[in-house]
Structure to design on (467 residues):
């Protein structure tokens, strides 16, 4: 058997973090078993489905590296096929026309509410002759559901789950206007796409019992269900925007790497011993549904940020620089010239060790891209450039003119010699020097900065600071 999974988001909003994890689990399971991972856009809700949302989902999945097999399936385009199955069930006596009017149904629900019983369709047209139908009422097609016995699901995550069939009503398959319902469309699409494993959030578990009624009525193979627990916030409450329940695009904008976000989402509800840093290759090799827990996982932005810092440090500069340069250009309003680009390349290794996100990396790196006097970051930095400090920097500039070796260690020795010759502490030189060269009181090591800037750019910045 070829394993086939699917991710089936509704394009009514962004690709949220829970959906991204569901997509990841489906992708990993299919790749682990050498199967297929399919993408279906469930756009049957025409009032709420939007093209921008579809594009955001496709873009988010591509950015995460969750490539799907084959073309994207759009559910709405398959409405005729869904209706065909409903009419087949009608012809086989597994479904029936219901002529109950909206007013009748509301009166039925009101009576059920008053009686304190569960609200569900009471089957009033289940065995009636359509000849009794009132004039002018367009019927819906309802499933003739099993009324006795139990429906049992051997869920790959939740274990055995059972519901009494008496709790399931005759749900609508085809609306009065001929459009299929979500429940019917999902089952037909999964069957036609040969889906073998339905991996989704456990908020769909109740849907599975109802969908199985259709599958059994049609005599189709039952998929393996795996309902994964939802994600909660770090405080254990339902995940919301205050916890970080944002779209995947927001995490990209905040400077997170797709590899880091994938790794973090993988560890939300799935584990492999004590392993925390898991490469994509290892994830594909190790992932199986047996490792998915039954308890909700907790989303923690701090942990995600720390994990991202690890991936940032480990990423080769040659891969990182293309991600950084467009953001640098956006900050500058222009492309860095050849000399500035060389400084960026030389300074990247040191700066990325001190950065947690791409945004931080760019903020910490951009001073290398500017030529001449850097913008002073704040009053604290400006206060360090006193008249005495400026005079000291002017003397330092003259002393550095004689230096020929600008490697980091040699720069440290040169600055220490200068401080000693001037009878001042190293910090009295290093702090104003840092502001003069970077515009900030916080930067990579000052000797590293000198080495990266080199003699010409250092001379320019010291001249501007000492003036």
């Amino acid at each position: 058997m070829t394993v086939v999974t699917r991710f089936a988001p509704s394009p009514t909003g962004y690709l949220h973090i829970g959906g991204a994890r569901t997509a990841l689990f489906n992708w990993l399971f299919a790749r682990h078993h050498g199967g297929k991972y399919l993408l279906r856009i469930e756009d049957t809700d025409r009032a709420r489905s939007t093209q921008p949302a579809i594009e955001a989902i496709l873009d988010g999945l591509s950015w995460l590296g969750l490539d799907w097999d084959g073309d994207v399936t759009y559910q709405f385009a398959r409405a005729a096929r869904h209706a065909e199955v409903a009419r087949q069930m009608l012809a086989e006596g597994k479904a029936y026309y219901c002529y109950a009017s909206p007013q009748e149904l509301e009166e039925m629900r009101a009576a059920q509410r008053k009686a304190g019983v569960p609200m569900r369709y009471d089957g009033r047209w289940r065995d009636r002759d359509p000849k009794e139908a009132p004039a002018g009422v367009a019927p819906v097609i309802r499933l003739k559901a099993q009324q006795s016995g139990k429906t049992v699901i051997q869920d790959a995550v939740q274990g055995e789950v059972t519901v009494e069939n008496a709790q399931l009503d005759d749900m609508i398959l085809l609306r009065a206007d001929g459009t299929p319902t979500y429940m019917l469309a999902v089952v037909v699409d999964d069957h036609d796409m040969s889906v073998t494993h339905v991996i989704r959030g456990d908020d769909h578990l109740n849907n599975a019992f109802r969908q199985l009624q259709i599958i059994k009525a049609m005599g189709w193979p039952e998929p393996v269900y795996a309902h994964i627990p939802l994600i909660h916030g770090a405080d254990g409450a339902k995940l919301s925007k205050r916890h970080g329940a944002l779209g995947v695009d927001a995490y990209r904008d905040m400077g997170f790497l797709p590899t880091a976000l994938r790794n973090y989402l993988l560890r939300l509800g799935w584990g492999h011993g004590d392993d925390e840093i898991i490469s994509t290759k290892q994830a594909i090799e190790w992932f199986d549904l047996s490792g998915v827990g039954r308890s909700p996982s907790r989303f923690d932005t701090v942990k995600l940020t720390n994990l991202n810092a690890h991936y940032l440090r480990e990423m080769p500069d040659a891969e990182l620089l293309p991600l950084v340069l467009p953001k640098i250009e956006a900050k500058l309003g222009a492309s860095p010239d050849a000399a500035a680009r060389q400084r960026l390349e030389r300074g990247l290794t040191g700066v990325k060790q001190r950065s947690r996100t791409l945004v931080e990396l760019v903020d910490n790196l951009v001073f290398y891209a500017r030529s001449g006097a850097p913008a002073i970051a704040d009053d604290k930095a400006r206060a360090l450039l006193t008249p005495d400090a400026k005079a000291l920097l002017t003397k330092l500039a003259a002393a550095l003119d004689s230096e020929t070796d600008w490697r980091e260690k040699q720069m440290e020795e040169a600055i220490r010699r200068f401080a000693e010759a001037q009878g001042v502490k190293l910090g009295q030189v290093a702090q104003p020097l840092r502001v003069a060269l970077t515009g900030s009181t916080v930067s990579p090591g000052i000797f590293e900065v000198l080495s990266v800037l080199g003699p010409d750019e250092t001379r320019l910045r010291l001249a501007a600071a000492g003036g």
